[in-house]
Design a protein that fits this description.
Length: 380
């Protein structure tokens, strides 16, 4: 499955957000306390640690729950940053399968992995589609295993009318480029388990968040895709593995941006859901693809609009349509050093790697873009 290189996401930041955050940063205003308070309120957390990335937050979570000789359970289809975090935290991994039609854990597979003995389970919300957290919490509780909720891609999704990201013993958030709530860079670890005691890592001052946010704002428009897409070295639309560094804290410039986007997250999600309705209507008219559906009692925040495709979509319009992660985590070379050989066949993860394609839903997608993507789906 091959695509032209395309930007696949757009920053929800506005020019006013970036300019205002720059003023705050250069005036040395520290909004990290405001951000902590907002995240604790939204996600019902006892404590909030701000980090330099979502991967750093996951490293801290894995270290908090790791036990000697006991692996951590992780989904077999997810971002390769999970591998980077596992390697940095020096933990072993046992994989469970993912339902390709909901992107939620395959519960039979997860229960078997829990029965084999693990120190914690990581559950990820993918592309704004919520995992079935009530079922996960029940299974993990019965096994006596804490839950690390990876809500890096939650995008304001809900389950049983609660925010995705408000269920686990701890929750990992990411605010990198293209997330539903962004500060260019940064992450957070939300703590609910009273037995978890972690200190927030120190931060490195700098304006990297402002630079990334500005670039994403400029280049994130569909009509601008051709410029960065023509530069192969940028690896746009690809998932590139990077080793994780030692966790750091969130810089003031990132917090200044995040303080603004948190206030507009629900508005951005509402716009994505409107666009997703149009795309779903078109997908339902195609005989050669199937739209992913949220689990019962769940509502997607549609960070992307995922479909399972038959055939090779080389004719996709250059509007940010991209295939999902190209491999199950079990096939990634970097996973081999920390993975415990799985007895699970991982059929769902392999199907997702082969068939999953995602379409953009963000606020910069125009009615004309939606019409082009709808025609592409209907004609397949």
């Amino acid at each position: 499955m091959h695509f032209r290189r395309q930007l696949t996401v757009a920053s929800p930041l506005t020019a006013a957000d970036i300019i205002g955050a720059a003023r705050d940063a250069f005036a040395r205003r520290d909004l990290r306390g405001s951000v902590r308070a907002s995240l604790a309120r939204i996600f019902d957390a006892r404590d909030v640690l701000l980090t330099d990335s979502g991967t750093s937050a996951l490293v801290l979570a894995l270290r908090a729950f790791a036990r000697p000789l006991a692996p951590v359970a992780m989904p077999a289809y997810a971002c390769v940053d999970l591998i980077a975090a596992a390697r940095r935290a020096d933990v072993r991994v046992r994989l469970f399968d993912v339902d390709p039609y909901t992107l939620s854990p395959d519960m039979d597979s997860l229960r078997r992995v829990l029965d084999d003995g693990v120190s914690a389970v990581v559950v990820a919300h993918l592309y704004g589609f919520p995992a079935d957290m009530p079922a996960v919490i029940k299974a993990a509780s019965e096994a006596g295993v804490p839950v690390i909720e990876d809500a890096a891609q939650h995008a304001s999704a809900t389950i049983t009318e609660r925010p995705a990201g408000s269920f686990g013993d701890v929750t990992v958030l990411s605010f990198g480029r293209g997330k539903g709530t962004t500060s260019g860079v940064g992450g957070a670890l939300l703590i609910r388990n009273d037995s978890v005691a972690i200190s927030e890592p120190p931060c490195t001052p700098g304006a990297r968040a402002l630079a990334i946010a500005t670039a994403s704002w400029v280049l994130g428009r569909p009509w601008m895709y051709g410029i960065p897409a023509s530069i192969p070295a940028l690896h746009l639309g690809e998932t590139v593995y990077h080793e994780a560094g030692e966790p750091g804290g969130m810089a003031r410039s990132a917090a200044a941006l995040l303080d603004r986007t948190l206030a507009t997250a629900d508005e951005a999600a509402a716009a994505r859901r409107v666009n997703a309705v149009i795309l779903r209507d078109a997908a339902d008219q195609s005989r050669h693809l199937e739209a992913v559906r949220a689990v019962d009692s769940g509502e997607s925040g549609y960070l992307r609009f995922p479909v399972l495709l038959r055939g090779d979509p080389t004719d996709a319009p250059a509007l940010g349509i991209a295939h999902g992660y190209p491999n199950p985590l079990s096939a990634e070379p970097e996973m081999q050093s920390c993975m415990i050989a799985s007895k699970e066949p991982l059929h769902g993860a392999r199907e997702l790697a082969r068939r999953l394609v995602t379409l953009p839903t963000h606020h910069m997608v125009t009615p004309s873009d939606l019409a082009s993507m709808s025609r592409w789906m209907q004609q397949r």
